[in-house]
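User: Predict structure, ligand magnesium ion.
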Amino acid sequence: MNIAEVLKEKIESNQTVLTEFESKELLQELGIQIPAQKLTISKEETISAAEEIGYPVVMKLIAEDIVHKSDTGAVKLNLKSKEEVETAYNELMNIPSQADRKISVQKMADEPITELIIGMTTDAQFGPALMFGIGGILVELLEDVSFRIAPITEYDANEMIHEIKGFPILDGYRGKPKADLDAIVKTLLKISDLVVEHEEINEMDLNPVFIYDKGLVCVDARIILKKKEENN
Ligand code: ADP
Ligand code: MG
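Assistant: Predicted complex:
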């Protein structure tokens, strides 16, 4: 995959929102780990994708008009057999959608120490800004996040991680293992490099990223590009 070419193609065809599948492929290209994933369009294809990936799998309905997938029942977790995949397929196909629909079959990732959110937004004055936080209610309710303008250094990335109030959750809180902070630092730096190199990216949302004592896996992502006329 040539990232510059992919982004150019999307902008030319006025597709400014990359699907979860496309966004995660791009992250994989950067060296950020994602669960094995396959796009399918029929029940037969979905079953063989699941068997190839290996149970347990996750199935998600991918369509342009479905943004918050779990709110509409478009995420089926922990499917352990062909029968469960078939049932999930039928249920996903019952969700109303006007758009072209596909199914993303992906490996069910192991339970993390915690879920993280890594994001990027474009500030009118300062350009790309990176965001980091711990997922779930810590982000939604407490707005416990840190920001830095890109490009960031390794020092900045470490500060972003340490300055959130929820940091103890990453640091072995109540006997849990310590999170792989170095993996978070490296991911923040990769996102920083990407958005500095590609000004055509307007917004990124890696939500959630599963963090472990060794490594991390991004299980959901969305990349939004600037419109044709906003790029020069
Ligand atoms: P939404 O569009 O609602 O944000 P997500 O793709 O984030 O949908 O899925 C909802 C939740 O399901 C995630 O927050 C995560 O906890 C879980 N999840 C999604 N994909 C996987 C996966 N491949 N492995 C394990 N858990 C997953
Ligand atoms: Mg999500």
